[in-house]
Amino acid sequence: MIIAERRPLPEILENISAYKKILVLGCRGCVAVCSAGGDREVAILAEAIRLGKALRGEEVEVLEKTFIRQCDPEYLEPLREFEKEVEAVVSLACGVGVNLIADLFPNLRVYPGVDTSFYGANLALGEWVERCRGCGDCIIDKTAGLCPIARCAKNLLNGPCGGSQGGRCEVRKDMPCIWHEIVERLKARGELERLLEVWAAKDWRPAGGDGLRVRVREDLRV
Amino acid sequence: MENSLKIALLCCNYTNLAEREDLAQLLGGVEIKRYPCSGHIEVTDILRAFREGAFGVMVAGCEKGSCHNVKGSKRAERRVLGAKKIIEELGLEPERVEFFYIGRLDSGDFVEKAKNFYGRLLKIRLKEKAQ
């Protein structure tokens, strides 16, 4: 899922400093699962804004709402009822939601309440770790399902660098060297020779090198 | 008054039976809010207490191993960490909110810790004024 983290409160407060009535808008998608932008986080940010404004001697009315998703025009439709009521929206959705609001509601001022961080797995309560970089040209069929683009600090495609020691990454010593793990896993499976295959050069255009990424499926369009 | 400030005490219903009279020595105002379990105390409750004028907020839950809901007081302790981060970002001293494990139904322990916390808050305010 998409992992996000609340932006620093002074930045959020600065963005909305001119407004007296705002909406804190959550999303029940990824950001709710990673505890950054669901109902509870909406309530916390709204209360933090009220307190922050009160400490600055400023008045504010903060409305709270959470939509099922913010990355789909259909689910953003209820925002129309707030469009004239509030001066600004602080969205706790990922950047996709904020952009879509900006696209669909050009007269509405929308500000991000979170920084969109990465695609990650929830390994334990309160712990998320990157597992995919969304590069659009998956190679994990060749690497035992372990992604060196997301999990190698140097994004290496041809085995471990000379710096890893004892199976640990030299850049992040708290992380395993993913190439070490790939090699060990393929060796255990008797498939190490797969790494001797010459791969075609990785196509980085789907990673964004070719501009805005768009996917259209004619079979789904009506 | 130099030795007067308002504090909010958010606690589990089962940690104590203390009343305002037991805390009469704490000048300035004491707000006691009880919850079915300290695990039910949200970050928003702590922030709201500050917005409503509390200089400090004490959150109290049953001591480890005695929470009726097993992990309620542990959750409350963690939420206080979350609240500390928020109030610090807003420019308040994080020490103005603290979590305390209290002996179950031990009002004496509760009152004692509230008084100690009150004393620490007075020092924070004095330091603030000195700056």
UniProtKB/TrEMBL annotation, chain A:
<dbReference type="InterPro" id="IPR022026">
    <property type="entry name" value="DUF5981"/>
</dbReference>
<dbReference type="Pfam" id="PF12225">
    <property type="entry name" value="DUF5981"/>
</dbReference>
<feature type="domain" description="Methylene-tetrahydrofolate reductase C-terminal-like">
    <location>
        <begin position="111"/>
        <end position="205"/>
    </location>
</feature>
<protein>
    <recommendedName>
        <fullName>Methylene-tetrahydrofolate reductase C-terminal-like domain-containing protein</fullName>
    </recommendedName>
</protein>
TrEMBL record, chain B:
<dbReference type="InterPro" id="IPR003813">
    <property type="entry name" value="MvhD/FlpD"/>
</dbReference>
<dbReference type="GO" id="GO:0046872">
    <property type="term" value="F:metal ion binding"/>
</dbReference>
<keyword id="KW-0479">Metal-binding</keyword>
<dbReference type="GO" id="GO:0016491">
    <property type="term" value="F:oxidoreductase activity"/>
</dbReference>
<protein>
    <submittedName>
        <fullName>Hydrogenase iron-sulfur subunit</fullName>
    </submittedName>
</protein>
<keyword id="KW-0408">Iron</keyword>
<keyword id="KW-0411">Iron-sulfur</keyword>
<feature type="domain" description="F420-non-reducing hydrogenase iron-sulfur subunit D">
    <location>
        <begin position="9"/>
        <end position="123"/>
    </location>
</feature>
<keyword id="KW-0560">Oxidoreductase</keyword>
<dbReference type="Pfam" id="PF02662">
    <property type="entry name" value="FlpD"/>
</dbReference>
<dbReference type="GO" id="GO:0051536">
    <property type="term" value="F:iron-sulfur cluster binding"/>
</dbReference>
